[in-house]
Amino acid sequence: MAVLKSFDIGGQPVFLYFLVVICALGGFLFGYDTGVVSGAMLKVRKELLEPELSEEDADIWHSILVSATIVAAAICSPISGEICNRSGRKMSMMFGSLLFTLGAVFMAVSDSKETLLIGRIVVGGGLGFSSSTVPLYIAEVSPEFMRGFLTTFNQIMITIGMFMSNISAGIFSEMERGYKIDFGIGGVPSFLLLIGLFVCPESPRWLVEHGRISEAKKVLGKIRRNVIDVEQELDGIIAECEEEAKHKEAIKGEWVLGRMMRSQSVRRAFLIGCLLHMFQQLAGINTVLYYSATILEAAGLSNSPSTIIWITAGISFANVISTIPGMYLIERLGRRSLVLWSMGGIILSCIVLVIGFHLTRTYSPTIQPYTSTTQSTPTTPTTPTTASSSFIFYSHHYEYAAETEEHSECGKYTDCIQCVESKACGYCASDENKYDGICFKLEEGDTSSNSSLCSEDKWFDNVCPSEYAFITIIGMCLYLICFASGLGPTAWTINSEIYPLWCRSTAISLATLTNWCANIIVSTTYLKLEEELKQWTFFVYAGTTGCGLVIFYFFLPETKGRSLEEMEQLFSKPLYKIGTALKADSTVSLVSNLKLREEPKEQEVIY
Fold it and tell me: What angle, 0 to 180 degrees and rounded to 10, lies between the N-to-C axes of helices 14-23 and 187-196?
């Protein structure tokens, strides 16, 4: 560690970046679990759920296994705030990483849906702790002028976690019960986080708040290069904590949330923070992440789970790359501008997704009708005949034989969408053209392929092949680019910097609870929305994002370049004037912020 403290990157000790990367492993866990659900659940459904459950019950268990983690995270998120206050940020992260490791072990050994569910719940508890605490810790150890840049490390680690989970799902996609390995691998980074936290110091702000000023000074000395900066920053933190101590003494015993609601500026900041997290999820991001494989399958890209998983991995890589511009733009454009532009892009990408799905359904592959004659033998490859109780029919030189009683009900459909949505039939593509084929009745107990009549690579029982799948891929990539470079990281960054110290951990944990609750709503309603609205589903997410765009245009202030101790002034204006009154702040350059930092002005900060 001494070596790390003696080198600089960008004028700051390497040790600072080491702390940020180690703690951002908590974001990696968040991303890995979010991403692994998409690919692994395809295999869980086929290997664990469908063999013993009806299709309806399999759908229910699919939703339970996805949402159980989210519910557990939502429950544990506010608990983490209390642990942050009492035992420190470091302890909260350690507890979260321990829970995630235990949950990963449960899932790795699961041979039943019940055991898998237990693992998903325990992992969710770990995510609840890490998702609340990691952004808070990173913000508190970061220099003011680098806070936005460093807090986006958490977001980029989330996207890397998603990408690695898709790689894992692709590697083990052909292995029997490979989902156990997919889930179990998540325990490796969580264990590394647990070990790494032993060398990470506690947040200097928490140390000062608990009277450990000499320790706080040592920590600042390790993560700041300029001695003058250390003294000024420590003095500012001490002054803030002393002011907070007076307030706490005056209202001794009062619940933190009650005090938050009585403070006008904190109440406004808390409202903005919760709205950011709510609209971040209502934009539909976890629909794209949790169900990306299902979405690509529905777009008609392929009927092979392995192929779908690898394509999902490619899209996840685009998500990683898209996060990098956000790390730069968050300090250049500012938080407010980045949020507004990002939400505009999300609306556009949702419209592209709707267009892609609409074309997929409108131009579904055609079905060749069943026909028969009284001739005893066929005279040409395209002449169907009847022999006994069988039809002999052809489609692009591909011959099939079927029992009249078994398959006649499927012969009434004219396109693939009608065929597969009947649930009783499946589509078999011809050898020469997968966009032309025949509708067959599903064999008893077989929903994956009708091997007696159609080879598996030509068989589609849930989705249809489409020439327009590329539009859906473009829409998903555009969505992830817009989200990952804007709304994704800024919601966490802004929440980590707008609250006073006395309620910071509580406010962040409760805002994160809002995030998880909105996540639950989106992830549990998508399948039902898709069933009812079909290709129009993403118009719902475009609409909610549009509402958020209007709200943030008027109410979201620019927080770039402000110290953690200055935020009350940003929310001192009437709520309806906050956004428009502070638009000019978004144009303040990084150079100006550095000058202000070098020549700080005395300023009374009241919380």
Answer: 140
